[in-house]
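Hi everyone, sorry if this is the wrong subforum. Our group has a chain we'd like a structural model of before ordering constructs, and none of us has done structure prediction before. Sequence below.
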Amino acid sequence: MDDKTQISQFLDTTGKLTAYPRKLKAKIAVLRYLAEKFEPDCIYSEKQVNEICDNWHTFSDYYLLRRELVDFGFLDRKRDNSQYWRVPDNSIDNGKQTGCV
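Answer:
Right subforum, don't worry. Here is the predicted structure as tokens:
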């Protein structure tokens, strides 16, 4: 079963998350879907991450989504939370640019 099929029950007709899954496999698929909304070579402020998460869900908990994206390794951040970036899908990183959105 591919990720899209696995998460379809958690998406509305516009592709926004309507609920956060409890099962680990579905949770990872949802986080992968959300991580795709971030450019892999860009640096984001916490506010920008919150806005992107907020734009892609309907249950008003971008804090949860931001934390889970980091905890599950889809996003990384500086220790002071001032900068976030999408973790590359492979080990090659071509450099990061600030101000992407």
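For your construct planning: The first strand starts at residue 42 and ends at 44. The helical segments are 3-7, 24-35, 46-55, 62-71.
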